[in-house]
Amino acid sequence: MTQPEKQPISAQTSAQTADRPRRTYKGSGHPTWCPACGDYSVLGSLDRALTAFGKPEWEIVVVSGIGCSSRFPYFMNTYGFHSAHGRALPVATGLKLACPDLTVIAVGGDGDALAIGGNHFFHAMRRNLDITYLLMDNQTYGMTKGQSAPTSMMGSRSKSSPYGTVELPVDPVWAALTMGASFVAQGASFDIAQLTGLILQALRHRGTALVNVMSPCVTFNRSLDKEYIQSHSYLIGTDHDSGDFHAALHLVLDAEGRFPLGLIYRKEHPTLEERIGGITSHAGGSNTKVDIDKIAAQFL
Amino acid sequence: MTQPEKQPISAQTSAQTADRPRRTYKGSGHPTWCPACGDYSVLGSLDRALTAFGKPEWEIVVVSGIGCSSRFPYFMNTYGFHSAHGRALPVATGLKLACPDLTVIAVGGDGDALAIGGNHFFHAMRRNLDITYLLMDNQTYGMTKGQSAPTSMMGSRSKSSPYGTVELPVDPVWAALTMGASFVAQGASFDIAQLTGLILQALRHRGTALVNVMSPCVTFNRSLDKEYIQSHSYLIGTDHDSGDFHAALHLVLDAEGRFPLGLIYRKEHPTLEERIGGITSHAGGSNTKVDIDKIAAQFL
Amino acid sequence: MISSDNIGGAITIRFEGDSGDGIISMGKVAARTAARLGYHVYTYSTFLAVVRGGQVTFQLRIGSAPLLSQGDDPDILVALNRKAFTDAGPRVRPGGIILHPSIRDDWPKTGPDVRMIDVPLEELSIRETGSARCKNIVASGILLGLLGFSRREGEDVVREMFGGKEGDIADMNVIALGAGYEYGEQAGDVTDHLRFPVLESCRRLLLSGNEAVALGALVGGVRFFAGYPITPASEIMEWLAAEMPKIGGTMIQAEDEIAALAMCIGASFGGVKSMTATSGPGLSLMIELLALAGMAELPVVVIDVQRAGPSTGMPTKEAQGDLNLAIHGSHGEVPRVVIAPQSVADCFRQTIEAVNIAHRFHIPVIVLSSQSLSHRMQTINLSDLHNVPLFEEPFWKPGVVDEQYKRFMQTPDGMPSCRSIPGMEGGMYRAGGLEHDETGNPNFDPEVRRRMVERRRERMHAIQRAFHEMESGEFDCACRSELGLVSWGATASAVFEALQQLKGEGHTFCHLMPRILWPLPDTTFRHFFASGLKYLFVCELNATRQFAEILRARYTAELIKHGVEVISITKDDGLPFTPGELKTAILKELANRACEPKGM
Amino acid sequence: MISSDNIGGAITIRFEGDSGDGIISMGKVAARTAARLGYHVYTYSTFLAVVRGGQVTFQLRIGSAPLLSQGDDPDILVALNRKAFTDAGPRVRPGGIILHPSIRDDWPKTGPDVRMIDVPLEELSIRETGSARCKNIVASGILLGLLGFSRREGEDVVREMFGGKEGDIADMNVIALGAGYEYGEQAGDVTDHLRFPVLESCRRLLLSGNEAVALGALVGGVRFFAGYPITPASEIMEWLAAEMPKIGGTMIQAEDEIAALAMCIGASFGGVKSMTATSGPGLSLMIELLALAGMAELPVVVIDVQRAGPSTGMPTKEAQGDLNLAIHGSHGEVPRVVIAPQSVADCFRQTIEAVNIAHRFHIPVIVLSSQSLSHRMQTINLSDLHNVPLFEEPFWKPGVVDEQYKRFMQTPDGMPSCRSIPGMEGGMYRAGGLEHDETGNPNFDPEVRRRMVERRRERMHAIQRAFHEMESGEFDCACRSELGLVSWGATASAVFEALQQLKGEGHTFCHLMPRILWPLPDTTFRHFFASGLKYLFVCELNATRQFAEILRARYTAELIKHGVEVISITKDDGLPFTPGELKTAILKELANRACEPKGM
Ligand SMILES: Cc1ncc(C[n+]2csc(CCOP(=O)(O)OP(=O)(O)O)c2C)c(N)n1
Ligand SMILES: Cc1ncc(C[n+]2csc(CCOP(=O)(O)OP(=O)(O)O)c2C)c(N)n1
Ligand code: SF4
Ligand code: SF4
Ligand SMILES: [Mg+2]
Ligand SMILES: [Mg+2]
Q1: Is the minimum distance from the CB of B144 to ligand 4 under 6 angstroms?
Q2: CB A265 within 8 A of CB A245
């Protein structure tokens, strides 16, 4: 019996692509975001970072959940999956495990990532699969017109919290760090240069990389606008040792309501694919020669 | 129109209870756990702690998910709710918010709390509702006969990980602490005296209190037996300042695969009920006089 | 019975313009004023899913009797841009009026006998308030003036609508309204033929389907709400977020829909009436816990504001595609009640009914609203707030019991035995999702199991037996026609209008519009089938004829016996039925059948 | 067609004892040896839900032809404690044998003509191996000796079964078997009448329903599995956890069922065949994402090993209560295929069929197994591993495209257009759950929507048209009887036996046992109804007659036309049907009907 063989990715690329013009990773249509939405800059930054990264468009998949930010895949010229609310990470996980050669980028909003998708976030961070997660934090549910989100500041008013929220907000950076992410960075949508750099580093990092982006919703959350972020953030100093977990923890703990912008933590340790790969080679696994009789012999 | 009024709890207690014998919080039937399962001692400890706590059985509700440990409510002589897998915390949250006078204790296993129920754990910790959560950690799924759990040690073998697990384990104590719990303690099922004390403190704490209990599954996870726990744990010293968040973080970080037993962190800050209560009184809310006409006037 | 449109008069007004034009407020001022004067009002607006500009329409129908629909072609068009004129200008009815701020010669022609009035909205606004931003309220004022509605009521409405806003915005708008009113009054004679009196001078509430659900929840005694935002249901949570604290209740935004329902179940176990609201994707996520509520026999109300599915589908579009999920969605078999309101007034009343049923029968109740109903606005009578029967659940009486308290006692009539509530001495028991005996303890004995399966079945029968005490539907099956029609939910309005039109053309239909869709009103249906019926049209907004299939499954024997043919009229394109569409489809099916004998 | 039990011989052996007695291994050694010799084997065991001691039984049926069931009263009883004797001793068939380690005089009497043989298990084990722990394998040996089965095969089986264990345990057990074998051989003449030859000397695999599903997945090409433990489905994940790495596939234990299905959907988007397995509560949680797979037209297989619900229900008990959820469970309407295997061999073959269908039609496929089937063991032929058609999905050919690649191209025959897979140049597109146009871009235009709804409907028709290429069911409707029977899934075994018994009593039934339950095999059913059928019995293990209702809804017109009465035989007490139970229920219904005309 022959098993369907997965083609190696290189074989799937046609010949005439050798000397094509500069790749574009952005789609041709205009995004359907509100004018001045922070997410435009994230799109631009990802486009630039991917250009530097250099992989062809068709080896990249952008996976999202549901939300304004999750519309992202439709504005890209890559493969894309606009999945269900909260499920970007497990979809990305399955895809990456099944096709380790692809570059898999998960994207989503704060609600998608940390409300309904919180459990997947939690478990993705400890798995350390080699994927990049771009989280567009606007401290609100933009798509559903402005309810409070897990990242909303305590006491902030919204359609669903007319008297102010009553729950401790989640800091995505702190959450990722303490849940085991091997790469944690934070950017702001208005600083495209820095953001591009951070995304590029994330793409190059082997392991789960979170880039949290402060990305204002200009329509439904005026309290987190560009000015607020600018006055409540600071660039992480060059003296910060991003390879030191304790230093990273303290950086976040000491931020006290301000947003440290830059690379917070990075440490390479074996990825999930590598660990699973280890098991596979230990078990003698290979996709090409499958001996069903041998496997079935245990039932004899 | 009269609104259905909630009776104050005291009014629901009959008169003849003044001089009844020592209360028992344990049910009369024998638990259906395997002989020597760690959970027996947790049951015993909770019984003792409740005796010291002194509230009558009928003002206590034990809420669980699904798992061996989640059978707990059936072995108690209190109100109980054996809900669905992973859902103990949101059920407990709704109950406590609706009936703040009750003592609500959520219980469950590591799979229930941190696999399927991980998101609720995450959000419960940041809400700081005044409930106690007893987590029976046996690093396995006992009820389903021994698959690996989120707390299983990296590389440990189980029915579902015959070549060893490949994911960073979750430390419930670290998770609760970093997610915002206001009370975090850890006990072991074999030290009933300490465990009773910790549970009692948790019951008395105003806010979400996690007591993680190392509670061996003698049938499906021999690797985490009493001996292992004993040789891999230590009592937290009296010099530890449990009111200091940084100290608590470092205590857990420095434990390096050993289990610190005792009170790790405790700090009182406003509970969710209190914050919601603040909103209610700000809005002039009261259950007894509801003026529907006034409310409906906005639609005129 | 919903009365017919023919009693008294009715006019249709359409406001249309750019998303920045304030079209919605413009229309709402007129709508509310009419409602306060005692008119019945029905509104319908369209806007884009994601806020990013575009055309906005607000259609307002005012009548002296209850209205079935938003109406069709407008009598008055308030057109604020060219597209508005192009869209609707040619459709203005003879004798109608078009108000516009500046007409150009090259704009398309309108129908005959249509008057155009130039309304200098911006000029008036700037002149009177110093700013152009009140021009929309100037337009409202002109309209009120034209129709001769009370200026004072209009001013009150404006003051209250803008009262919460910063600065003197309320005052400015009151001034703008007055200026417009005077302008309109002067041209008032052109509208004489469009004026008609109120039949009953009373104040009516004007609210959307979602608001009516939320208000119904409060009136029905719901004091705990947990939710998660989702289009088109979010407004229910949002309104309750503001109002719950005022009456000492709790609203909490959960981390997801599963948690939301779990919280409601917890609150219900604590004896507090609880509810959540969602749309299709959320209902799918809740299905597992719905079964828990059913097994633990805990009352809980789940509002599902349907939108076009499947999956994320078309979140801002209309559909009735969640019926199967509501009725059949669960692993294993668990009793539940499914209710579908047919109007805004129904959203209010049926939400209360849902709470009553949940607590009377200890059962989860799903209320199927839908996108078009959720955002439609209609008037309901202020007095309706007080004329609703509220069910007081009789709790178990606390005390010391000899044996263990039996939460799940067998009763001969299928009714649940009284609940004890945590806090009640002696009433301790364990609720849960495992099969259990009368005390609630897990028990897998085949005999016990059979009893419990029977118990759950009997509960459904008990509910059916109580139907006569509920507004279980609009049933008109005494007309003894060969033609019958069944529909449910928000389609009711289009259906009733279509039936009127068909009657006008000589086709009299009996109709059954159940509000309670599950369990079905068996007796009513069986009578219906036995009444000489030959063709049964089932109209619903989905592609797989969900309700029709349920009827066919349940009433196969009756359909066979009386030779009734079931004919489905369905669509699933994201839009509600229009009466004309329904009429055409039905006539076509009838024509086919009439030809059949000849053709053979 | 499953052959009848009457060809060749068959005997039933029952092993019973304490949970510590090693009953399962004892039985398995005998079962496997028989299977290797070419016998057909069917086993059934009962043990407690939670591991805490108690009585264990293992019933083993051996036959020379395929077996329909585990049999009834035993020919041989291996009773290791008193309870075993009390339970089953009196039921041993005339001419049968009871093996026991130490009988007491006060034990109850057995039937006539039953021989009792004292077997000194512990003594032999201690004498030969120095330890009592091999006494269960001594018993296996005695049995093999008594039946004259090959000692060498038995020894091989023991060596392989215990080969992985530490120390010399395998050797000890081989010795124990030998000792028992000699003991049994000496008494062998007493079993002459119980011996019968194999018809075809070939090696057969003996495996459980869950193992067969897992093996089927591997053979069918599944290379990605994500799961979450749940009774009674966990073994599928566990077996694949061990085997997937050996063939370069991936198995991952997810954080919950939602994540498990999401991961499968992701892997499927990547072009890798993927599957998950769960039970009812997990299926409920997966319903939202199932719709995503449907909308995005991604192949994925979901195994649902049904257990008694609703909610947590009775996790270790049998039921067929998830059919409605599988067929109708989703908000909005999304195509899916539902398959129910009827035997262990079917678990293997239908899992492969599920993978094939998923990839041929780009659709989610749900396989409904159930508790009793999942743990039942039956033989399948080794050659079956190779005689399975595997569908190779034709992918889109990568290359530079002029316009955008159209993932959701319209095709005239309802078939999906070829998929591009990430990594293929030029094939970039966006998948998702929103309504979309041919490229995959979101589009809510009513016209586009209508096309897409039609597309999803047509997909189902395309599947029906391909039924003749699939093993879509066991259909026997050529017998032209007034009596018909329909059943599905694991009940098949009891049904086939009941039908045989009924035939013996002069009642010949036509029967339809569809494997593919959704979409329904319309043509077959329509022929069936038109064949002179008068009574249609529908047998299923649930209380609300789920499959019967689906048939009534779908075939109302045919039922009316041909005057067929649908009669449901159901139960929902956690136990499978027994043939006797079915026969009695059917005869009772027939008697009622036969009396009817007279009574009136
Ligand atoms: C299961 C489910 N629940 C709820 C929704 C409704 N919904 C769509 S997007 C969204 C939240 C969006 O917030 P976020 O993820 O922060 O994205 P943003 O729009 O702010 O970028 C919600 C609640 C849904 N589509 N599916
Ligand atoms: C939705 C759902 N998924 C899976 C299961 C099966 N299940 C029951 S208990 C359990 C895990 C138990 O592990 P844990 O919570 O650690 O409890 P323990 O038995 O170890 O005390 C699982 C997966 C279920 N009942 N419901
Ligand atoms: S609503 Fe907010 S988040 Fe959404 S597109 Fe507009 S600005 Fe961006
Ligand atoms: S299986 Fe494990 S966790 Fe469950 S009762 Fe037995 S020892 Fe305890
Ligand atoms: Mg957001
Ligand atoms: Mg556990």
Answers
A1: no
A2: yes
Rounded CA separation A96/A273 (Å): 8
Q: Topology of domain D483-592, per CATH?
A: Rossmann fold (3.40.50)
Tell me the three state secondary structure of residue C214.
Answer: helix
- Give the integer Cα–Cα distance in Å for B88 and B129: 14
Residues of D in contact with A99 (CB under 8 A): 267, 270-272, 422-423
Verify whether ligand 4 is closer than 6 Å to residue B68 (CB atom): yes
What angle, rounded to 10 degrees, do the helices at B118-127 and C257-269 form?
70
Q: Which of A107, A138, A213, A215 to mutate to test the pocket of ligand 3 (most atoms within 8 A of CB)?
A: A138
Query: Nearest Cβ partner of C270 from B3, B99, B283?
Result: B99
Tell me if chain C has a CB within 8 Å of the CB of D433.
Answer: yes
CB contact under 8 A, D295 and C283: no
Give the class (CATH, top level) of B33-282: alpha beta
Q: Decide if C234 and A86 are in contact by the 8 Å CB cutoff.
A: no
Determine if ligand 1 sits within 6 Å of the CB of residue A207.
no
Please check the confidence at residue D110 and state whether its pLDDT lies above 90.
Answer: no
Q: Is the pLDDT of residue D52 over 70?
A: no
The answer to whether C495 and C487 are in contact (CB under 8 A) is: yes
Per-residue pLDDT of chain A (300 residues; tens, 9 = 90+): 333 444 445 455 554 444 555 678 999 889 999 999 999 999 999 999 999 999 999 999 999 999 999 999 999 999 999 999 999 999 999 999 999 999 999 999 999 999 999 999 999 999 999 999 999 999 999 999 999 999 999 999 999 999 999 999 999 999 999 999 999 999 999 999 999 999 999 999 999 999 999 999 999 999 999 999 999 999 999 999 999 999 999 999 999 889 999 999 999 999 999 999 988 888 877 766 678 888 999 998
Q: Which of C174, C177, C147 is nearest to C9 (CA)?
A: C147
Residues of A numbered 166-195 whose beta carbons fall under 8 angstroms of chain C's beta carbons: which are they? none
The CA distance from B11 to the nearest CA of chain A, in Å, is: 31
- Cis previous bond, B100, omega within 30: no
Same CATH fold assignment for domains D11-202 and D483-592:
no
Q: Could you check whether the bond before residue C245 is cis, i.e. omega within 30 degrees of 0?
A: no
Single-letter amino acid code for the residue at D501 = Q
The string of pLDDT tens digits covering residues D367-411 is 999 999 999 999 998 888 888 899 999 999 987 667 789 999 988
Domains of chain D by residue range: 11-202, 207-385, 397-470, 483-592
Among the bound ligands, the one closest to the CA of C313: 1
Residue among D230, D242, D312 minimizing CB distance to B144: D230
Residues whose CB falls within 8 Å of the CB of residue C281, separated by 6 or more in sequence, listed in order: A84, A85, C230, C257, C309, C311, C312, D288, D331
Spell out the alpha helix ranges (H) of chain B.
39-53, 88-98, 110-114, 118-127, 172-179, 192-204, 226-231, 245-253, 272-282, 292-296
Q: How far separated are the first and last CA of chain B, in Å rounded?
A: 20
Percent of the residues in chain D that have a pLDDT greater than 90, as a whole number? 77
- Nearest ligand atom owner, CA of C285: 1
| Mutation to probe ligand 4, out of B30, B32, B37 (largest number of atoms < 8 A from CB) | B37
| Chosen CATH of C207-385 out of 3.40.50.970, 3.30.450.20, 3.10.450.50, 3.40.50.720 | 3.40.50.970
Does C11-202 carry CATH code 2.60.120.260? Answer: no
- Cα(C264)–Cα(C65) distance, rounded to whole angstroms? 39
Beta-carbon contacts of C151 under 8 Å, excluding residues fewer than 6 positions away, are C144, C145, C177, C178, C181
Give the tokens for residue D277: 């397995």
